[in-house]
Amino acid sequence: MTSRNPELDEGAEAGSETATEADADAGDDAAVSGGSGVETATGAGPDGGSDRGGDAIVEVEELRKTFGGIVAVDGATFELEEAKITGLIGPNGAGKTTTFNLLSGFLQPDSGEVRFRGRSTSELMRPSAAEDRVWVTASGITFGGVGASLAGAAGASLALLGGAAVVGLGFGAGLYYGQRGVRERYLESRPQRPHRLAEHGMVRTFQITRELQEMTVMENLMLGPSDQRGENLFQTWFRPNAVAAQEQEIRDRAFEVLELLELSHLTNEYAGNLSGGQRKLLELGRVLMVDPDVILLDEPVAGVNPSLRENLMDRILELRDQGYSFCIVEHDMDVIMRLSDTVIVMDQGQVLTEGSPEIIREDERVIDAYLGG
Ligand SMILES: Nc1ncnc2c1ncn2[C@@H]1O[C@H](COP(=O)(O)OP(=O)(O)OP(=O)(O)O)[C@@H](O)[C@H]1O
Ligand SMILES: [Mg+2]
After folding, report:
1. What is the CATH code for 206-291?
2. Ligand 2 (single-atom ion) residues, CB below 5 Å
3. What does the pLDDT read at residue 265?
């Protein structure tokens, strides 16, 4: 149920990609859906509760990020497996949070790449072809307008018809090439939009802000998708019926998510009245609203009391069993060891080692890294 339709993503992106990229992507997507559709025991670890997975859904390759002279992430390479929980641990300053921010698109790497279902996330986060067209058209009109005014002004002041034509042509050509140069530079440096990554199915949780605390649980959930996807004002004005249908769809999904997280009894409660653990569940609920494939969690149980912790962890394990893939950064070793199918240990910006919780627990290098850090 959680598997998003790769064909939809394909269609949405096709316009902004070259033919070769699109071909390669189609191949990857076919491979992925083939793998996840077949429910065999292949790739299921003895510790994993899911019989899906084994395929890498996210690949991180040689990521590097520096802040001034500090190398925060130094060539990290690892994979997140589909329908598994991957724990990311390491001593203070190891680069976990930076890696997390690179994965979710909130930071751009100096070099290296994150691929989601075989496609570069920096490419997935670029504005759509439609946004590009709006920009290019607007710049064309601006440059054209400026060119015409300059030519007109030059013509008037010279009061010579032939002179005006020559000057006008000169300005026109100059402006055309200028506009092309600006456009090319813009296309190269197009800003990344993390929310577009969420549309493709890779999301991170956010704290419930003070503003959201003044809303009910249901309102928080209903805000989720529009938050992640960006409101479309055009639709609200011109297609009210479509908007109403969409709202009903979102409400239905919210009820589904509430049931999934066992929060139904709190539907109309103000988020501000929730306990720490319930609030964490609501944060999770907000990202589940967009029916993601990969969920990135930064310290999901921090500040949650022990009994609610159990509840929160059980929900995460259940979601994993339903096919959601997780990457979790967490300081609490017991939590990481209980939740993770695979643990990745970072130290000084690099992957020190990775393996099952049982193996990592015994690893001398890991013990040293923590004691040394
Ligand atoms: N915005 C920033 N500007 C400058 N240095 C930074 C920035 N963010 C992180 N760093 C540095 O990069 C290194 C890695 O930091 P990061 O926060 O990723 O580590 P971490 O593993 O999350 O640590 P912790 O366990 O303490 O949360 C540290 O030396 C940190 O001081
Ligand atoms: Mg951190």
Report:
1. 3.40.50.300
2. 97
3. 96
Quick one: which H or E segment has residue 34? Answer: helix 19-37
Helix and strand numbers (H, E) in the chain are 16, 10
| Second-level CATH architecture of 36-123+193-201+294-373 | 3-Layer(aba) Sandwich (3.40)
**Lowest-confidence segment of 71-80, 217-226, 322-331 by average pLDDT:** 217-226
Of the two residues 266 and 132, the one the predictor is more confident about is: 266
Kindly give, in sequence order, each residue whose CB lies less than 8 Å from that of residue 120, ignoring residues fewer than 6 positions away: 113, 114
Q: Is 165 left (phi over 0), alpha (psi -120 to 50) or beta?
A: alpha
Q: Residue 353 pLDDT more than 80? A: yes
- Per-residue tokens: 93: 């300053």
The closest ligand to the CA of 92 turns out to be: 1
Q: Which residues have C-beta atoms less than 6 Å from ligand 1?
A: 67, 70, 72, 90, 92-98
| Ligand 1 mutation pick, 96, 99, 345, max ligand atoms within 8 A of CB | 96
Centre of ligand 1 from the C-alpha of residue 312, in Å: 27
DSSP-assigned letters across all residues of 233-297: HHHHHH-HHHHHHHHHHHHHHHHHHHHHTT-GGGTTSBGGGS-HHHHHHHHHHHHHTT--SEEEE
Spacing, Cα 280 to ligand 1 middle (Å): 24
Atom number in ligand 1 closest to CA 329: 22
Ligand 2 centroid distance, CA of 97 (Å): 4
| Per-residue tokens: 104 | 């979710």
Nearest CA to ligand 1 atom 17: 97
Q: In what order do the strands lie in the sheet with 325-329?
A: 202-204, 294-298, 325-329, 85-89, 342-347, 350-355
Ligand nearest to the CA of 346: 1
Domain boundaries, the chain: 6-35, 36-123+193-201+294-373, 129-188, 206-291
What is d(CA 201, CA 291) in angstroms, rounded to the nearest whole number?
A: 7
Residue 17 scores a pLDDT above 80: no
Q: What is the pTM of this model?
A: 0.71
